[in-house]
């Protein structure tokens, strides 16, 4: 299992990185922490001709501005500064393992848009957004299109993510079920309860993180009715629907 | 060409961009203490420290280590951690051991003694098919106490 041969570029500025992406289009892949991309390279599921390594770009900031946290694209998942961000701190321990979080980035996980990834779900349920090199700010709910597909245009680089800061009287819960600790989730649910009401989203059982309207009297049951999970080798569609019911009930129970 | 310091020794090597750091350490430098298992980040056998932080060497390109300081099991000074592994019978075949030692040394360097839960969480990223993990948890906890 070795990657195919490729050209390696290590730009020092965002402009240079964007120019490389524009020049090479679909042939280029952005390398951030590499905890998803490098396995795909090793298994040759990804065969880019150019790798654009963004690790030396100045995208490592975490800053609080106007009620939200800006997290630079290459901030590592193990970064202790992330613990202050509501919900994100709760779900990071579920992202891979101690060692992979040392290298994996917040921006990389969001841009990769794996339907079973925790960070896209957290960003979506919080109503966060994605900041791009083209100066666009894209709401998470519009950013995630389907499996491994986002609203990023060719030649556009994710430069950061925006996470709403903690609000008074607001509670957050994240629940996940995976076959092994650190493995991809079979099902995830997140809930936020505050002055603006209750907001629930589910992941893994849908093709992108999805906010759902629930019946507060029957949160889990009403959520399970709204998803159409595809069965997998590990879990049938009926089993996954049952997981939705249980995890949504648990998440909502923790915030209300 | 990359400049990299491995276990305190400086190297200046020409590498193909697709060469993984794990293969660079093993094949280019001959440091075979870093083991290779799954090559997709699950088994933990290839874990090394880059600029002090434990990482999967199979998920880094050697070119990305340009300018960095890498520590492998060959460069890990003998101390309470290895002694505890011996005392608690925390290894049999030893395939997973180098990766666990490097990850555990990172965890132990981060301050106060980790909780048992934190050690178990760390080991979720390291597959061992011999000992059944409990002796490894005991060894890391014991090493933390003697620090």
Tell me what you see in this structure:
The complex is a heterodimer of chains A (256) and B (147). Chain A is α+β, with helices and mostly antiparallel strands. Chain A folds into 3 domains: 47 residues, Uridine Diphospho-n-acetylenolpyruvylglucosamine Reductase, domain 2, CATH 3.30.43; 103 residues, Uridine Diphospho-n-acetylenolpyruvylglucosamine Reductase, domain 3, CATH 3.30.465; 85 residues, Enolase-like, domain 1 (2-Layer Sandwich), CATH 3.30.390. Chain A is 28% helix and 26% strand. Chain A has a 5-stranded antiparallel beta sheet. In chain A, strands 11-12-13-14 form a 4-stranded antiparallel beta sheet, sandwiched between helices. The longest helix of chain A is centred in the C-terminal third of the chain and has 19 residues. Chain B is an alpha+beta fold. Chain B is built from 5 helices and 5 strands. In chain B, strands 2-1-5-3-4 form a 5-stranded mixed beta sheet, covered by helices on one side. The interface between A and B is medium-sized, with 31 and 27 residues.
Write the layout of secondary structure elements.
The complex is a heterodimer of chains A (256) and B (147).
Chain A: E1 7-9, H1 14-24, E2 28-31, H2 37-42, E3 50-53, E4 62-65, E5 68-72, H3 88-91, H4 98-101, H5 106-112, H6 118-126, E6 129-132, E7 137-139, H7 140-143, E8 144-146, E9 149-150, E10 158-164, E11 171-178, E12 185-194, E13 197-203, E14 210-212, H8 219-225, H9 237-255
Parallel strand pairs in A: 1-3, 2-3
Antiparallel strand pairs in A: 4-5, 5-10, 6-7, 6-10, 8-9, 11-12, 12-13, 13-14
Helix pairs in contact in A: 8-9
Chain B: E1 2-6, E2 9-13, H1 21-28, E3 47-50, E4 53-56, E5 69-71, H2 80-87, H3 97-108, H4 116-123, H5 134-146
Parallel strand pairs in B: 1-5
Antiparallel strand pairs in B: 1-2, 3-4, 3-5
